[in-house]
């Protein structure tokens, strides 16, 4: 149950922030592992997640708590995500005693990765060891960290 949600997902849209803000530090993502743990990053938030696979309204989903920091300030919250009919991840993220925001995400390998002022590159070219053939000024996912 929920194994189709395992993997690294690129946050493409959020209710509270536009794309340039989502990608402030690095391209926004959520990473869901097979072992009940994962990670996330968007805006200046970096955190770890502890999740469980579940079903919501008959659809496989992941519900989890998260903790990390927002530009040096400790933050935590909860989140729920599910797979939509078009293969997109939809969900909401909540900050403890703070805001909540819906978001949408796609698997990293389904789209081009954008790096703000650094341009963009194909995800295949962004994989470690694939530097040859990249256009000048393009950076890989690993370079952006």
Q: What can you see in these coordinates?
A:
By secondary structure, this protein is mostly beta strands. It has 2 domains: 3-110, Lipocalin; 112-145, no CATH class. Helix content is 3%, strand content 51%. It is built from 1 helix and 10 strands; from the N terminus they run βαβββββββββ. The protein has one helix spanning 19-22; strands at 7-14, 29-32, 37-42, 45-56, 59-70, 73-83, 89-95, 100-107, 112-114, 120-122. It has an 8-stranded antiparallel barrel with strand order 1-2-3-4-5-6-7-8. A two-stranded antiparallel sheet has the order 9-10. A hairpin with a 4-residue loop joins strand 7 (89-95) and strand 8 (100-107). The chain is globular. The termini are far apart. The relative contact order is 0.18.
